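can u pls check wat happens w/ flavin-adenine dinucleotide
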Amino acid sequence: MEKDTDIAIVGGGLNGPLLALALSRAGFHVTVLDAVPVEVHTDPDFDGRSYALALGSQNLLRALGLWDGLADMAQPIEDIVVADGRAGFGATAHHVHFDHHELEEGPFGVMVEDRHLRSALMAAVQADDRIEMRAPARVVAQQTDTRGAALTLEDGTVLTCKLIVGCDGRGSDTASRAGIRRMQTDYHQTSLVCALEHEHPHDGVAHQMFFAQGPLAILPLRGNRVSIVWTESTERAQAIQALDDDNYLAALAPRFGDFLGDVQLSGARFAYPLGLSLAEHWTAERVVLVGDAAHGIHPLAGQGLNLGVRDVATLAEVLTDAKRRGEDWARGPVLERYARWRRFDTAGLAMATDGLNRLFSNDNTLLRGLRDLGLGAVNATAPLRRGFMREAAGLGGDLPRLMRGRPL
Ligand SMILES: Cc1cc2nc3c(=O)[nH]c(=O)nc-3n(C[C@H](O)[C@H](O)[C@H](O)COP(=O)(O)OP(=O)(O)OC[C@H]3O[C@@H](n4cnc5c(N)ncnc54)[C@H](O)[C@@H]3O)c2cc1C
């Protein structure tokens, strides 16, 4: 039966447009629906949010032809320093220094500002004849059966398709409408996010410092600017967020230290309450989940979007190969192939970030001793260090073609 589109993607945040571009390269017709108008996503004002994109994700951007437009605005992550911090003293002597020269592929990845990434994605989507972007378009209902699927929008429009992809974030209604439940825990932590301008050069070094209330990540941006993800207990974070800019910086100073000289705020300040949110299943009849709709993890390793990018590359490859073989690509056996491929990587990262947060976000003397011992051991053991570096760069495990920079 004729359908309005092959694949309807609910959610035009980051993973939705990326998936649409990957699928279009393989000849699928795709419709992306987002509740928010496109202009909101592409607002050029700098809003302080940025992403650490691992080398594997950068490979995918390159394979999809997006990298050339982003390269000049991206800051390579040359080194990563992970330290057990003490408020008032900054990083302690217990730390691991990951030097990209030990990695034959080069820097671990790049820092890209949210505004640049979203604008590049939207421009590519709008220029693509096989992709239709509808926004604002809120999906309010979905129907699926063995013959096809349909989405109902808030204005009553019905869109028919062969497959629905839920890219609608942590609270995914696509998942709940399909009867998929999720496991959720509240970390009772909130990340404060903003960008800072500073006096001394950052040399492309990313810092991750662990404090009893939560980690502080200092991530290099182009120029003398860094993006921070400063995690505190939710109660304390709310109090800090309510401060004026001067007092906000004064509260940050004991953790940030003075290694970058004088610092000033650059752009707006954000607060993100943190939790772990994992869908119990990734597929249902003609429905599949991608990105935060499938897994929302702690941001301490900067891997949430990278995990979503790996979903995108994997789903695009599985669907493309199934289509080339003449299989019914929108049905259970094919979708399960995708879910099986992604399960181990996702579970591993969700557990690792959850475990690291529990191990480091406390002031227990015994645990402090243990983790300092651990950091010292990793720092002193080259093969262990290189293993962590390959994982951070998104080069570990069984990678789909796009993550290796190859076409579909
Ligand atoms: C503090 C913080 C720092 C982070 N830093 C990093 C980092 O450095 N590196 C990294 O890899 N990851 C990072 N992440 C994770 C990353 O931000 C997320 O993984 C990513 O934004 C998820 O993108 P998404 O497209 O899956 O979902 P979202 O960005 O949540 O997009 C979902 C979209 O769906 C739309 N939508 C929802 N419901 C409907 C509906 N009914 N109809 C139509 N549209 C709908 C919404 O409007 C939205 O646009 C960080 C996260 C946090 C909280």
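The pocket of flavin-adenine dinucleotide is lined by residues 10-16, 33-36, 51-52, 138-139, 167-169, 173, 191, 193, 229, 272, 291-292, 299, 302-306, 308 (CB under 6 Å).
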